[in-house]
Amino acid sequence: MMTLIGVAISVAFFYSSATVFVIVGKDFFWELATLVDVMLLGHWIEAKSILGASRALEELIKIMPTTAHLIKNGQITEVPISSLKKDDLVLVKPGEKIPSDGVVFEGDSYVNEALLTGESKPIHKQANNKAIGGSINGDGILKIRIEKTGEETYLSQVITLVKQAQASKSRTQDLANRAAALLFYAALSSGIITYIAWFLLGQVDIGLERAVTVLVIACPHALGLAIPLVVALSTSITAKSGILIRDRKAFETTKDINAVVFDKTGTLTEGKFGVSDVISFLPEKELLEYASGIELNSEHIIAKAIVEYANKKNVEIPEVSSFSAIPGKGAKGIVKEKEVFIGGPKLLEELKIIIKDTKILELQKQGKTVVFAVVENKLAGAFALSDKVREVSKQAIKQLKENGIKVYMLTGDAKEVAASVSKELGIDEFFAEVLPDQKSDKIKLLQEKGLKVAMVGDGVNDAPALVTADVGIAIGAGTDVAIESADIILVKNDPRDVIKIASLSKKTYSKMVQNLWWAAGYNILAIPLAAGVLYNYGIIINPAIGALLMSLSTVIVAINSQTLRKYEN
After folding, report:
1. What is the maximum alpha-carbon separation in the chain?
2. Is 263 in the active site?
3. Can you say whether the dihedral through the CA atoms of 175, 177, 179, 182 is positive or negative?
4. CB–CB of 222/198 below 8 Å?
5. Residue 247: which region, alpha, beta or left (left: phi > 0; alpha: psi -120 to 50)?
6. What is the average per-residue pLDDT within 436-464?
């Protein structure tokens, strides 16, 4: 990058020295001193501007506390973080930072993880909940059993990933490097041609001054910073938002994505059974009392879902007597002095009850699990259970479609279930009854149609599809950031972050292009002016002004890169 400056200063110095000791001519010592001063000033301003690019990573490193309150043999002692070991028990007081990754052993509090995962709301933590080192404890007191220390911790893995991504080259960086090399040869050639032209006109002094100015003004220093600055900033910004980039080229490709394929379970849905519909032929509260009264005595996953639903509706669950399970069919008991049966279709067959309600029949067609409540030998209502669709999934798919991106869903579930979820979310197309090893074939099928595909999955059974896709996005990674099959890792289980990635990718690329124009575009006008094409009109750029313009282009690139910070939240 500094070859042109080195050549310019050397030529000016040795020629000026020659005019003192050997030949007759005009020296450039004053211009040379001014040039060096302006160059140094430019470098200082540039360094000050660039410093901000690495600060985001420094802030991540500073998040970790330096000491911890270790509980040992009933005594609490303050120890350095570096001395903590797995299974150590530490005390975290209100307002303090959690010293390392672990599990809450005792206590109840809200923890702020915003700086680590981008989750704006404080997270409620109680016994057996995971805690991330560096997050800030709220008003409660927590005792935490340490699980990970040193380089194993979530924050250490994030910092490693950020460093790797910042060090990795992007396609645009390769373009900038080629442009810098091309500009170097163009400037050197222009400098030589300028000198020869003025020499032939008999203006040796002017020719030398013009040649030096051309070399100085065309220095591709700004080009060398145009891309790395944006890379450093964008990688740090995404990390603070809970988006970890493992492959810069994949991140750049995200801007061109026109199809997103989501895994269903745990990505678009909650990944757990829940009540999705209630059809009641009694007041709903009364139906819930009868059903939850029976199901409270059962450990079955369906029973737990119904009890959980009743609790959400603030239903007071009554006591049950004469409870008994009906193997393979359901359960029965006496609730509020009435005989109540809860079970599936086989129970209705045994009780000789025929389903006529069209809503119930429709729910069964959708592939949902339907459980019936029978009170005093009459059908009192039904509960439809399914893997519940997450509200954020609806928002994510709506936004993707508004941006002109096609949305597909992959699932191993039956077609009826897939069709129901797909319809609810407004998904363009779905692939059902797909085994994990067949998912990559579906991605290839879309790619063969000319689509640029991003695959969003949990990073476990979706690994082949994540690798096959143009961009593989692992969602809901939590504290496990070492997912080898993914290009991008989302810490939070929020599909809306896919839109955020695409948006950041476009803005990052836009900044890169802007920087390239600022860094090299001004040379289209500057080099001819430096060469002296308007000399006869009194428009002259001397070497010092040339150095100022070159430094200014570098500073503009640095400041323009910093504007990415407005996308931090």
Report:
1. 121
2. yes
3. negative
4. no
5. beta
6. 83
Share of the chain above pLDDT 70, in %: 85
pTM exceeds 0.70: no
Return d(Cα 193, Cα 138) in angstroms, integer. 69
Is 551 exposed, middle or buried, given 0-12, 13-18 or 19+ CB atoms closer than 10 A?
Answer: buried
> Can you read off the two tokens belonging to residue 308?
């959980």
Compute the distance between CA of residue 477 and CA of residue 491 in angstroms, rounded to an integer: 5
For residue 12, what are its two tokens?
């000016």
Choosing from 101, 108, 139, 263, the catalytic residue is: 263
pLDDT tens per residue across span 79-94: 998 899 999 999 999 9
Angle (deg, nearest 10), helices 29-62 and 221-240: 10
In 508-565, the DSSP E strands lie at: none
Rounded Cα gap, residues 239 and 245, in angstroms: 8
CA distances, 445 to each of 453, 525, 542 (Å) = 10, 49, 61
Helix (H, G, I), strand (E, B) or coil at 79: strand
Tell me if 46 sits within 8 A of 551, measured CB to CB. Answer: yes
**Does the pLDDT at position 481 exceed 70?**
no
Please check whether residue 142 is in contact with residue 100, taking contact to mean a CB–CB distance below 8 angstroms.
Answer: no
**The length of the chain, given as a count of residues:** 569
For residues 476 and 488, what is the distance between their CA atoms, to the nearest angstrom? 11
Give strand ranges (E) for 428-511: 429-431, 453-457, 471-474, 488-490
Report whether 180 contacts 137 (CB < 8 A): no
Closest by alpha carbon to 139, among 80, 95, 100, 84? 95
Look-up of token digits 């961009």: 471
Can you say whether the dihedral through the CA atoms of 522, 525, 531, 535 is positive or negative? negative
**Cα–Cα distance measured from residue 528 to residue 379, given in angstroms and rounded to the nearest whole number:** 90
Query: What are the start-end ranges of the H helices in 332-384?
Result: 345-350, 358-365
